[in-house]
Amino acid sequence: MVGTIVHQLTRNMKIEDVKKAGLEEYFVDHTAGVYPQFASGFPWSAASMQSTGDTIADLTEDMAAEQKARKTYDNILRLSDDPDVNNAIRFLREREIVHYQRFGEALRLVTDRLDQKNIYAINPSYDRE
């Protein structure tokens, strides 16, 4: 969705607009194409995603990712003055909050079902004695 918003905002831009915005380097590499990258310019990669196979670790990582996305949307809202962009970003932000809550509920369910002797909150299925 964010890529679509960027496309909609840039589809009619002219070279003068590119220069005025300081986007010459981006334009040279990608023209007006939406290239998935962080605000720092570092390209997005699946390598930034984590999976350990441990339910507790993975759900905790998922919760952190949702909060990082929410924070990014908060920052976009601080910078944007476009009502259409802001409405779409608010929708995405609300979705991150709901995802965070659902992952939290899943984590609670998992930890409630752990072996009662497991005081360290780890996955006991791999460490049976």
Verbal overview:
The chain has helices at residues 2-10, 15-21, 24-30, 55-79, 83-112. It has 5 helices and no strands. Helix 4 (55-79) runs antiparallel to helix 5 (83-112). The longest helix is centred in the last third of the chain and has 30 residues, at 83-112. It is elongated and about 65 Å long. It is 60% helix and 0% strand. It has 129 residues and is mainly α.
Shape assignment: elongated
The mean pLDDT is 86
How far apart are the termini?
Answer: 48 Å
Q: Report helical residue fraction.
A: 55-70%
The largest pleated sheet is described as: none
Structural class: mainly alpha
Unreliable stretches covering 5 or more consecutive residues: none
Tell me the number of helical segments per DSSP (H or I, 4 or more residues long).
5
Q: What is the percentage of strand-forming residues?
A: under 5%
Radius of gyration: 20 Å
- Tally the beta strands: 0
The ordered string of helix (H) and strand (E) elements is: HHHHH
